[in-house]
């Protein structure tokens, strides 16, 4: 489905360039080969990846050599073939990269056998699935991993979903351990099916997502849990694949198939990111000649010869387009690559020149009758090894800015939490202010009552100024005396409230400054990290350029060596022919000349031997000079490679040290912010306790007692607010001094003021928010 094919929001974190890996596999000759057929392919054991082929007629046959990443001889088994060609792809997929393996070659050369194998001899696909789930089980307790499988077929230039077709026929069942190909291959009487038997859509459409990736619309992707689930889907899909008998192959594949395993897992680095890797296993149909395969010839005896000819034409056309695409990519500077000329190249677009580690297995037949087709296959493989891909880790739900944006996202969440805390604090401050307003109004009412009492009982108060009994005789005077302590407490409360508001204002300003300072440091670190990444990428590009330059120099030297060898061989051959002709002429002349002339002829023969020795010596000297030049070039390239690796490692170490210092700085600043928050909450609790005392006092919950002529209010110990600890006062004074020094050195331009009209400093908060 599109959700697992498009993988929107991919993040390129470890982009690098990679060359297509090319492995050649020789199919064993049946029965050891036909009588008199010694084979035209030789695998050079002295150098890995070197293979030679002799092609052409008996008179003008030429031998050509090719150098690839590896060559699998006729005696190499399935397990060794997987180890040497495809095992590394499983690790790439689990690390979040895409990987692709496709088999290319003429019909009957062993492509399907290599990919899917047969009973008792599992192919690359089966072994890759087993290794994949084995590695997943080892990490089962550390990270969660999901695997999805899709299987499609490109037949007659139409895309068919083999999983959907199998599901429509009720054959998709996970039963036991079925890891081999079915005994009855598709195309035989027991396995052929018509398109009218409910096989579902037979021509799916290719689409492109917003990131430029290619996917097949409505292609079914099935969640699998173990190896048996995958192998059951593969077996049922192969049962519905189009294969028929031809003169060249009893079970000839008439379609291209692509088996895709999508692995979605956690990154494994503890950063909470989700990565996705794809493994594409492509079994291409073989190229064939109509004359040899019997397609189109009704007298050949094959079934539906006309349809076989149509299939062969479409297959050869798609493979020809694939060759054109590879030629354009191998040049490296092509402005246009014809991916859209064929559905096959469209499906393989990312694998050929995009986001993938790609491996090509070129299968050949060593028989002399197949020499020309094998040479074409090797030439195609030789062009493929020059194709460059750009694999990178695929992150899900990540933004294009990478880890810097992830850090910014976390910082935004922290800021939101702090804003929420500030809003709650403001809310409680508003409630506290409302309580203070209520207390103020009560005090004003009491003051007015006191004034009224003074006017009514003024005389009595003057007469009994020195007498305690007289002062008690007036009820009004008693009420006025009662409110005097209340007014004193109210004044103390207003003073404490003003002090708390000033302290809160300072704390807010300091918090804003610290937050801005932290963000500025974070921005500087992000820019420094981006700069280091650019430098590392530059070094990688330079290293890649050096590698490309060294490869081109090696190829140029090889070509020069080949041309000089061919030139010397031609000269030696011509000299040998001339010498032979002269010797024959002299032998004929010697029959009719005296004995003296025979002595002269012997001298000429000695001169011929001397000339041959001189020629051999010259050839050896030139060969030695070329060898020394190649060794010197290799040494220089090795020194340059070590130098760039040294600088690359040094830059990586600098980046790690910077990240470590930044983490320590962030931890220190976070601890300071947390300390300021705790002190602010402490101030809030202190003010809340004062408000509670005042409210209880107004309600008359505290008794009034008189001692030595002085009236006082007795406040219970449990209601009294605790005194501020010296540690808090010391920290607040320290932070206040540092904040004052910072404001003098770095003016913020903020205008926050507290007054009777604006007791909470709301205008300043709005300015901060803006």
Q: How would a textbook summarize the main sheet?
A: 10 strands, mixed
Helix run count: 19
Kindly report the average pLDDT value. Answer: 76
Q: What is the oligomer described by this structure?
A: single chain
- Measured by DSSP, the beta-strand proportion falls in 5-15%
Low-pLDDT ranges: 1-15, 173-200, 454-484, 763-770
| Ends distance | 45 Å
> Considering DSSP H and I runs of 4 or more, what fraction of the residues is helical?
55-70%
Overall number of strands: 23
CA radius of gyration: 45 Å
Backbone shape = elongated
Structural account:
Helices cover 56% and strands 14% of the residues. With 770 residues, it is of the alpha+beta class. Strands 2, 6, 7, 10, 11, 14, 17, 18, 19 and 21 form a 10-stranded mixed sheet that branches. It has a 3-stranded antiparallel sheet with strand order 3-4-5, covered by helices on one side. It has a two-stranded antiparallel ribbon with strand order 1-20. The longest helix has 116 residues, at 475-590. It is elongated.
Question: Descriptors for this entry?
Answer:
alpha+beta; 56% helix; 19 helices; 770 residues
SSE diagram, text form:
Elements: H1 2-5, E1 18-19, E2 21-26, E3 41-43, E4 50-55, E5 62-67, E6 70-72, H2 78-85, H3 87-94, E7 99-105, H4 111-116, E8 117-118, E9 121-122, H5 124-138, E10 145-155, E11 158-161, H6 162-168, E12 206-208, E13 214-216, E14 222-224, H7 227-239, E15 243-244, E16 252-253, E17 256-266, E18 274-283, H8 290-293, H9 305-331, H10 343-347, H11 349-353, E19 357-364, H12 371-384, E20 388-389, E21 395-396, H13 403-456, H14 458-463, H15 468-473, H16 475-590, H17 595-698, E22 704-707, E23 710-713, H18 726-745, H19 762-769
Parallel strand pairs: 2-6, 2-19, 7-18, 7-19
Antiparallel strand pairs: 1-20, 3-4, 4-5, 8-9, 10-11, 10-14, 10-17, 12-13, 15-16, 17-18, 18-21, 22-23
